[in-house]
Each structure stands twice: as structure tokens, then as C-alpha cells.
Amino acid sequence: MMLNPERIQELGSLQQTLNYTFTDPALLNKALTHKSYVNEKTESLKNNERFEFLGDSVLDLIVSDYLITTYPNHSEGKLSKIRAAVVNEACLAELARTLNLGNYLLLGRGESQSGGRDKNSLLANAFEALVGALYQDGQLDSVKRVFMGKLEKEISARVDSRLFQDYKSELQEYTQTHQNCIPIYKVVSEKGPDHEKVFEVEVIIQNSPQGRGEGRNKKEAEQAAAREALSSFRNESDRS
User: Fold this and answer.
1) Which of 55, 169, 212, 238 could serve as 131's disulfide partner, Cβ 3.0–4.6 Å?
2) Is 166 in the active site?
3) Is 76 part of the annotated catalytic residue set?
């Protein structure tokens, strides 16, 4: 896709905010191209979902590396909870808002009219895609230089607080200790249009369903299912 002068100028503004200039601006443009936009165009375009997939892994890596280095006395369980509280939809959406990322997204008309530029799920996905694109353009050191400062602030805000609760990790710790197994999560339904999809997930422990939860993405639904299962186990413990 050839970028017109207006789009090049828009992307230039974002690159100033990032304090990073892409060697290949087409990578940045692709990171900001939602599938709803691609679906409305006749020319051959690619959406940002592959970059989103890559960016998710890159974020996990740089946050994990920072946590291991910075907090050598914290347990793996606590580090996992902190990472889950930072690399999640709500936090990444807020980071996207600090960059005004919604203003730069290429959205289909329907998605744009329905408020897509300020939806948490869409903004979080776009932030992950941006990280993935920057990794492809400048490798890991560039990603750290551009984003680690923002991520450090989110991490430090959660290290000594209760701003996070990772129910999946808590449930796994419980089942490993008390039942010598790990939970299995299964998507049982997907409801609604693509831009407002709701997932329902069931958590299975020792071949028995123990909890269900809904969310705007699979991770959120899994957390809700784990929370329900934990509540059930704790109630049983209180009665015994």
C-alpha cells in the first residue's frame, strides 16, 4: 500500500511522539490498520493482527526480563501476577491513550462510528501491534528504549499494591497444591459482532467443570472463570 502525503504526515506526528523514526513507515501503517478497514477496501491490504501476535510476545519478554532483573527477591508467582496486571487489556489501552493511538488507526466506517477509537480491546490490540511493528523495524533494543519507561511506571505502581489479582495463577497454585493437577480452559461460546464479541470460557479441573466466566477477550473470560472456581473451592473449605 502506497502511503499518501497526508498519511505520511500523520505517521510522522506519531513517530515524533514515540521519539522513533521507522526505517520502513509501511510497518507502522500496517500496525495501525484494523481488519474492519481492510474488509471495506478492494485493494489487497493486510491488517495488524500478525503484528499484534508478535507484540504480545515481545511485551511478555521485556516485562519478564525487567521484573527478573529488578526484583530478584520476588517469587515467580508474584512476578507472574505483576506481569499479568501490566500486560493486560486495561493497562495497554491506557498506554495507547497516552500516545493518542486511536487518532491514527485506520478503521472501517462502522467500527469508527461505533466508537472504536476509544475501545479498550481495540486500543490494547493496536498497542501490541505497534510494539510488534517496532520490533520488526528496530529489534528489541529499540522497543525497550521507546516503551520501557512507560512500562516501568506501570510495574512500580503495582509492585507494592493490590492493584492486581491474577486469578488464573492463584487457581493453578491451589490445584497443584491440593489436587496435583492444573486447570484447563475451554471456550464454550462466542457471542456478538466482531467489534463487540463476548467470550464465555469454562475451566475444567480433573475432568469436571468448576467455573464459567465471560469477557471481551479470552484472557478476561479465563480470569472470570478462574475467579468463580476459586470462590467455589474456598466456600467448600469454609464449610468443611
Assistant:
1) 55
2) no
3) no
Torsion 108-112-115-121 (CA) sign: positive
pTM score over 0.70: no
Cell of 132: 510488534
Single out the catalytic residue among 56, 137, 166, 228. 56
- Among residues 89, 111, 128, 222, the one annotated as catalytic is 128
Report the sign of the C-alpha dihedral through residues 54, 130, 56, 121, in that order.
negative
Q: Which of 79, 206, 60 is nearest to 132 (CA)?
A: 60
C-alpha dihedral over 39, 42, 43, 45, to 10 degrees?
A: 0
**pLDDT tens, residue by residue, 66-94:** 999 999 988 888 888 889 889 988 889 99
